[in-house]
Amino acid sequence: MSLTLPRSGRRRHAVSPVLAGVLAVGAAFLLVLPVVWIVATSLKPDGEIFAIPPTLLPRAPTLTHFASVLGDASILQFFRNSLLAAGLATVVSLVLAVPAAFGFARFRYRASGVLLGAVLVTRMFPPVALALPFFLQFRQLGLLDSPIGLAVAYLPVVLPLMIWMLEGFFRELPEEILEAARLDGLGTPGILLRIVVPLSRPAIAVATMFGFLAAWNEFIIALSLTRTPSGQTMPVGIAGYITQFQTLWGDMTAASVLYLAPVLVITVLAQRGIISGLTAGATKG
Q1: What digits encode the pLDDT tens for the residues 47-106?
Q2: pTM for this structure?
Q3: pLDDT number for residue 285
Q4: Based on the domain organization, do 20 and 128 belong to the same domain?
């Protein structure tokens, strides 16, 4: 008796890549469309921005909005504050996250899971829930309207994220490598610095990038802890284009493009390394 099941099985396997491709194209379109819309709007004259029906691409591209934004001295200050606050928070978090994640991953004890959960629980709170306590504390400490204060406030956002990402990778490191290092006379600090960190560079780079982006894009905490352009970041500055009487869509989208450009460039250039770091701990041994 002959069976036709293999033919139907082959048909299912032949359709699956096509379906996967369609879903991938659809997802990519949904992700790219907002970026294309922002860039296109930043190049449109004011009259075309409000045209009915709307157009996706500008009919008469102009750099007027970019000239207006770059002519505002406060934009450079916003960008500088964002870079300082996000960079400082990321560096401090990296220094603390690497040994903390290694300790959680390789030195298990009865309460380690509870302690790790306590460290990560701050990621479950929305930033708006932290804004008022931060404001009251930072007002007493004199850290309001300061990039340094923002860097401190970003630590509960960035540090747990980096610990969570690195702990999963460190847990998958082969025990044989660490045991060989112990036999060679290395203590725990030596193993961490001379063995674990070099082996974990892709994962550390990815955790650093995600931590930096978490701080770079933060809005609620920055809005709550800053009052003047001397301490405000780019997300807060961009929101300033929404005034009481009108929204300056052209200038706001131009500033958004300037804010997105460095992140997009770095992400594209480091794409291969990001994928390598994300998949580095996927398999054991």
Answers
A1: 888 888 888 888 888 999 999 999 888 898 999 999 999 999 999 999 999 999 998 888
A2: 0.81
A3: 42
A4: no
Print the SS3 string covering 174-213: CHHHHHHHHHCCCCHHHHHHHHHHHHCHHHHHHHHHHHHH
Residue 114 in any domain: the answer is yes
Provide the CATH number for the domain around residue 236: 1.10.3720.10
Q: Which domain holds residue 41?
A: 16-62
Cα distance between residue 67 and residue 64, in whole Å: 5
Whether 29 and 79 map to the same domain: the answer is no
Q: What is the pLDDT of residues 103-135, one digit of tens each?
A: 888 887 777 778 888 888 877 878 888 888 889
Pair 58, 131 in one domain: no
C-alpha closest to that of 174 among 151, 153, 191, 150: 191
Express each pLDDT in 191-250 by its tens digit.
888 888 888 888 898 899 899 999 999 999 999 999 888 889 999 999 989 888 888 999
Residue type, 132: L
Domain count for the chain: 2
Q: Is 87 in the same domain as 36?
A: no
266: exposed, middle or buried (C-beta count within 10 Å: 0-12, 13-18, 19+)? middle
What is the number of residues in the chain?
A: 285
Cα gap 150→231, rounded to integer Å: 9
Here the tokens at position 45 are 């004259």
What contacts 266, CB < 8 A, 6 or more positions away? 209
Claim to verify: residue 57 and residue 69 sit in the same structural domain: no
Q: What is the pLDDT of residue 187?
A: 85
Residues in contact with 165: Cβ distance below 8 Å, sequence separation at least 6, in sequence order: 101, 203, 206, 207, 210
DSSP 139-150: HHHT-TT-HHHH
